[in-house]
Amino acid sequence: MQRVSIQKFMERNKKNTILVTGGAGYIGSHTIIELLETTSFDIVSIDNYSNSNEGTYDRIKQITGKDVKHYNIDLCNYEETVKVFEIETGVIGIIHFAAFKSVSESVENPQKYYHNNINSLLNVLECCLKFEIPNFIFSSSCSVYGNITELPVKESTPFNKAESPYAYTKQVGEEIIKDYCKAYTQLNTISLRYFNPVGAHISGLNGELPINKPSNLVPVITQTAIGKIKQMTVYGSDYKTRDGSCIRDYIHVTDIAIAHIKALNYLLANNQKSNCSIFNLGSGNGVSVFEAIKSFEKISGIKPNYILGNRRAGDVEAIYSQTDLSKKELNWEAKITLDEMMETAWKWENNLKKQ
Ligand code: WQD
Question: For the residues of 116-165, what is the DSSP string, one character each?
Answer without folding.
Answer: IIIHHHHHHHHHHHHTT--EEEEEEEGGGG-S-SSSSBPTTSPP---SSH
